[in-house]
């Protein structure tokens, strides 16, 4: 498998991207854990929000499993129902966003350098890139601006994007269903599935998309929480998405417990 490290030789990396883009017209890019190494940050912010609002501790692994594959508004509405919270989903989402951005600021977390290199190479080759994320629209906008990456994308479709919502509703697709959104979008744009590539860090999401969008290319972003997933991207390209600002988080005892339990959960699930 090709591994694109944080600082590979520029000539070698350019050659790898040239081969990739020879057969690609569009990159569909997740945000948390991909553009930025922020997937774990998102889960910690969910956990902190729940603990702040309910006054009791919440297991990070359970928080992560509950949130996977759901839109931000769906998650907030679920919290209100499950815990009897007397707040609007919009108010909860605003607070979660503040917690998320605070963690990023406190830990000096920046974008994934390997993914930025991929995006710059795509732009230079005339390959379009769009963000399709179930994350917080406000947080995505803030971080793209802070990191100076907004110009690398031809469209940004986070969970509350109005165009995304209208597109999904008109076709009877759930707004958080990435697989069928991608299938419908590519079909309407006349883009062959095999000439699109999805850039993701969640192997289960990739499996779902590949099950619906037959022949789509995949690029995997590897981080601490998914390093043992065993996922093999169709392009053979795995981008290492580690960032120094996260190491302090990983050293915290609650993070260690999270990874230990996640590893145990993967082990029980057996081989892929």
Structural overview:
The chain is an alpha/beta fold. It folds into two domains: 2-36 and 111-265, Rossmann fold; 40-107, DNA polymerase, domain 1 (Orthogonal Bundle), CATH 1.10.150. It is 53% helix and 11% strand. It has a seven-stranded parallel sheet with strand order 1-7-6-5-2-3-4, sandwiched between helices. Strand 5, helix 10 (203-212) and strand 6 form a beta-alpha-beta unit. Helix 2 packs across helix 3 (60-67), helix 2 crosses helix 5 and helix 9 crosses helix 10.
Which terms summarize this structure?
alpha/beta, Rossmann fold, DNA polymerase, domain 1, 2 domains, 12 helices, globular, disordered N terminus
The total of helices stands at: 12
Largest sheet: 7 strands, parallel
Instruction: Briefly note the structural class of the backbone.
Output: alpha/beta
In CATH's first tier, which class of the largest domain applies? Alpha Beta
What count of domains describes the coordinates? 2
Distance between the termini: 17 Å
Low-confidence stretches: 1-9
Using the CA coordinates, give the radius of gyration. Answer: 18 Å
- CATH architecture call of the largest domain: 3-Layer(aba) Sandwich
Mean pLDDT: 84
> What is the overall shape?
globular
The CATH superfamily of the largest domain turns out to be: HAD superfamily/HAD-like
Query: Which oligomerization state do the chains in this entry correspond to?
Result: single chain
Q: What spatial order of strands do you see in the largest sheet?
A: 1-7-6-5-2-3-4
From the 3D structure, determine the CATH topology of the largest domain. Answer: Rossmann fold
Q: List SSEs in N-to-C order.
A: EHEHHHHHEHEHHEHEEHH
């Amino acid at each position: 498998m090709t591994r694109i490290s944080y600082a590979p030789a520029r000539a070698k990396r350019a050659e790898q991207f040239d081969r990739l883009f020879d057969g690609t017209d569009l990159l569909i890019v997740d945000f948390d854990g991909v553009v930025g190494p922020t997937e774990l940050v998102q889960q910690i912010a969910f956990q902190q929000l729940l603990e702040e609002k309910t006054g009791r501790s919440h297991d990070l692994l359970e928080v992560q499993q509950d949130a996977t594959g759901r839109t931000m508004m769906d998650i907030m509405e679920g919290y209100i129902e499950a815990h009897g919270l007397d707040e609007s989903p919009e108010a909860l989402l605003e607070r979660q966003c503040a917690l998320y951005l605070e963690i990023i600021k406190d830990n000096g977390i920046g974008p994934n350098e390997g993914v930025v290199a991929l995006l710059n190479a795509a732009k230079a080759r005339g390959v379009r890139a769009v963000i399709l994320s179930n994350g917080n629209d406000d947080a995505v906008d803030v971080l793209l601006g802070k990191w100076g990456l907004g110009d690398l994308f031809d469209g940004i479709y986070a969970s509350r994007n109005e165009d995304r919502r209208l597109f999904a509703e008109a076709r009877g697709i759930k707004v958080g269903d990435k697989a069928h959104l991608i299938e419908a979008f590519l079909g309407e744009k006349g883009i062959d599935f095999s000439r699109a590539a999805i850039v993701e860090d969640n192997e289960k999401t990739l499996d779902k998309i590949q099950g619906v969008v037959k022949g789509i290319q995949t690029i995997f972003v590897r981080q601490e929480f998914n390093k043992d997933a065993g996922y093999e991207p169709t392009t053979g390209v795995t981008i290492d998405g580690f960032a120094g600002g996260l190491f302090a988080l990983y050293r915290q005892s609650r993070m260690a417990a999270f990874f230990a339990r996640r590893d145990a959960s993967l082990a029980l699930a057996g081989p892929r």
